[in-house]
Amino acid sequence: MKMNRTCRSSTSAVGGPGAPRAGFFRNWRASLRRAAPLLAAFSLLLSACAKKPPTLHVFIWSDYIKPELVSAFEALNGCKVVMDYYDSNESMYAKLKAGGGGYDVVFPSSYMVNIMQAQGMLRPLDHTLLPNLAHLDPSANRFTMDTNHAFSIPYMLGSSGIGYLAGKVPDFQPTWHMFESPDYKGRMTLMNDYRETIGAALKALGYSLNTLNTNELAAARDLIITWKANIAKFESEQYKNGLVSSEFFVVHGYSGDIMQIMEENEDIMYVVPEEGTSVALDEVAILKDAPQPELAHAFLNYLHQPEVAAQNIEFVYYLCPNLPAYDLVSEEVRNDPAVFLPQEIMDRSEVVWDLGENNALYSRIWDEVKGAE
Ligand code: SPD
Fold first, then answer.
1. Is residue 151 within 8 Å of 125, Cβ to Cβ?
2. Does residue 51 surpass a pLDDT of 70?
3. Is 160:253 a contact under the CB 8 Å cutoff?
4. Looking at ligand 1, which residue's alpha carbon is closest to its atom 10?
């Protein structure tokens, strides 16, 4: 057989019928050489992914979950939980709106769930991943508009009230009008939270904290301006340290937060003023663009595991509406009216509702308070 160029380069001359052609090998080797850096990067990425556990980013109120429960969740799920904190619904909302975060899970109060859901900020919940929904106390539904838990599930119920130092304020009276007392000028704080503080003033005046009556709102504004002359500042977080260290004698704060610091200073007391207050249900929701939606569902479900909910109640001193957990908490907590709010407090208190476009009535009043001398 005459050998020509064609024959020498033919595959049958090298490996018989069906064997790959030498040209193919050359092309393949060249492609491989070209792809080598890409392949190396890809395998680096794979090994990095294999080593790095998934991370759940949680945006939550401060002092609102028992840290050991978070560690236990990490161990159970082979993941890492990174937490960031906020001190009001509005500051949380503003940060998310400004594009901050990359968060998966957030804890808005029920009125804020409504606002965020209407603006497409929340992810619909997949109930097949939330079997512990079966443990929810259905009576918590009167504090939320998301009664089917389409976008959120109840997390904790609590009240707002007044924390004070019994030894420093011997004439303390359980009324919002304490903030008018000149005797404690500079030693008092009010929350930097427009629905809470306008709500307190409205209750002090005998009005609803969801009123749309502009005269009532104007009267509340004027009362807060009177209070403002006596307080050290509007503040929703540092009041706890201030009460423990006796820098402040009378503070407007959240029930569980004030109960938590009682161990650090035996003089601290908490009361719900006789005129009534706001009772808030904070919920837990998954953000629309959550990077880890499945892990986020696992976290929500975990929070309603009865033993977890019970331990959390004991730690934060708020009430997780989880029926089997009620039987698992200590008798001391079960009988604590700051945790299991008695009917007489419920009767004079209200939930802050989303007022839609009328929310602006409140933010306008708040701007006027802040701007007043
Ligand atoms: N540190 C936890 C605070 C919880 C506050 N929940 C109620 C918010 C309603 N303004």
1. yes
2. no
3. yes
4. 196
Q: Is the pLDDT of residue 29 over 50?
A: no
pLDDT score at 37: 52
CA distance 14 to 247: 92
Helix/strand/coil for 289: coil
Task: Give residue-wise pLDDT tens across range 192-210.
Answer: 999 999 999 999 999 999 9
Ligand 1 atom showing the smallest separation from residue 62 Cα: 1
Length of the chain as a residue count: 373
Nearest CA to ligand 1 atom 9: 280
Going from the Cα of 258 to the center of ligand 1, the distance in angstroms, rounded, reads 11
Residue nearest to atom 7 of ligand 1 (CA): 280
HSE-CB of 216 using CA atoms within 13 angstroms: 17
In the chain, % of residues over pLDDT 70: 86
CA of residue 12 to ligand 1 center, whole Å: 80
Report the 10 Å Cβ neighbour count for 4: 9
Dihedral (C-alpha) 97, 100, 103, 106: value to the nearest 10 degrees?
Answer: -50
Distance (angstroms) between ligand 1 centre and the Cα of 334 equals 20
Beta pairing, strands 55-61 & 105-106? parallel
For 314-353, b/e burial (b = at least 16 CB within 10 A) is: bbbbbbbbbebbbebbeeebeebebbebeeebeeebbbbb
Cα 320 to ligand 1 centre (Å): 13
Domains, the chain, ranges and CATH?
Answer: 55-157+280-340 (3.40.190.10), 158-278+353-371 (3.40.190.10)
Beta bridge partners of 81: 56
Pocket of ligand 1 (CB under 6 A): 61-64, 89, 109, 158, 193, 196, 254, 257, 280, 282
Residue 94 has pLDDT above 50, yes or no: yes
Which residue has the least CA distance to atom 3 on ligand 1? 61
User: What predicted TM-score, i.e. pTM, was given to this entire model?
Assistant: 0.86
Q: Compute the average pLDDT of residues 75-96.
A: 97
Tally DSSP H helices, then E strands, for the chain. Answer: 16, 9
- For the segment 137-148, the average pLDDT, to the nearest whole number, is 97
State the distance from the centre of ligand 1 to the C-alpha of 119, rounded, in angstroms: 22
